[in-house]
Amino acid sequence: MQLDRGQLAALSAVLTTGSFDRAARSLGVTQSAVSQRLKALEERLGCVLVVRGQPCVATASGERLCRHADELALLERKLSDDIGVRSTGTDFPILRIAVNADSLATWFVEAMALSGDFLFDLKLDDQAVSAEWLRRGEVWAAVSSESAPVQGCDVSSLGGQAYIAAASPAFIERWFNKGVSFESLSKAPALTFNAKDGLPSGWSKQVYGRAVSPRTHWVASATAYVEACVRGIGWGLHPHSMIADDLSSGRLIALVPETPYVVPLFWHVSRAVQESLSPVSEAVRRVARRSLLQLD
Questions:
Q1: pLDDT reported for residue 76
Q2: What is d(CA 181, CA 225) in angstroms, rounded to the nearest whole number?
């Protein structure tokens, strides 16, 4: 079955932007044109592809077809580069990548900047489960703590993200005035990113042999998480690079010195588009080499 590229582009734009109006602006056409193209595609296939609303969302068929359209655009872009055809300057394929919030807050944006002319659709999830996005076929690549390759994908080591358990001086004075112990950690309010965040319990198990289950604040923002710690709201685990200045200035203090919690990170990429994503993979590995701990 040969599908109309303009209709596929309309579908992708509507689902990416969430509305017909924004899709029209991104494609440089009228809203009516987008609506007509999508309607024609749905009539040809005999199924609904988009549930109209605020925002517009894909049906199962629409999601599958949208991934096909984006993959086709990516492969066509690679073909154009290979045969020396210059891009129009607006032909930016969409890349769907799963990445954890701490990588995004510390080093991944630099890799994006070095990747070339792509549009990134990032799916934020914990590094322990980000590979699931690949298994479901919803992304083409992922930063994950999972070392085993996902079926149909290749995997390479990026290095280790070092986390430091820290708190503000005032918080330490209030909650750890007799020293940091498993018992005092259990009583002191902690900071947790979300329900998938296993960093505080992982670090305490490394240091004390037991996973702590403290009272916790839920702070699902990498930068707000650090700010909450600096302001004495709770103790938490932070990427070292994010709090290096705070540690140097004394705004934050390591709870137990010389006990970093290192999370190995890996780059998974689908073999189906591996060659097309080679500029992104190269940039990710290059930035990770100088940003993360290089593990033996």
A1: 73
A2: 22
Burial of 51 (0-12, 13-18, 19+ CB in 10 A): exposed
* Full 3-state SS string of the chain: CCCCHHHHHHHHHHHHHCCHHHHHHHHCCCHHHHHHHHHHHHHHHCCCCEECCCCCEECHHHHHHHHHHHHHHHHHHHHHHHCCCCCCCCCCCEEEEEECHHHHHHHHHHHHHCCCCCEEEEEECCCCCCHHHHHCCCCCEEEECCCCCCCCEEEEEEEEEEEEEEECHHHHHHHCCCCCCHHHHHHCCEEECCCCCCHHHHHHHHHHCCCCCCCEEECCCHHHHHHHHHCCCCEEEEEHHHHHHHHHHCCCEECCCCCCEEEEEEEEEEHHHCCCCHHHHHHHHHHHHHHCECCC
Strands 50-51 and 236-239: unpaired
Regions in the chain scoring below 50 on pLDDT: none
pLDDT at residue 84 in the model: 65
Q: What is the pLDDT of residue 190?
A: 97
Q: What is the pLDDT of residue 3?
A: 83
Task: Give the predicted TM-score (pTM) of the model.
Answer: 0.83
Is residue 88 included in any domain, yes or no?
Answer: no
First to last CA, the chain: 49
Are 173 and 130 contained in the same domain?
no
pLDDT at 1: 64
Q: Given this model, what pLDDT does residue 162 score?
A: 97
Residue 296: inside a domain: no
For the beta carbon of residue 112, count every other beta carbon within 10 angstroms.
Answer: 19
Which tokens is 7 given? 């209709």
Last residue of a domain, one of 25, 59, 82: 82
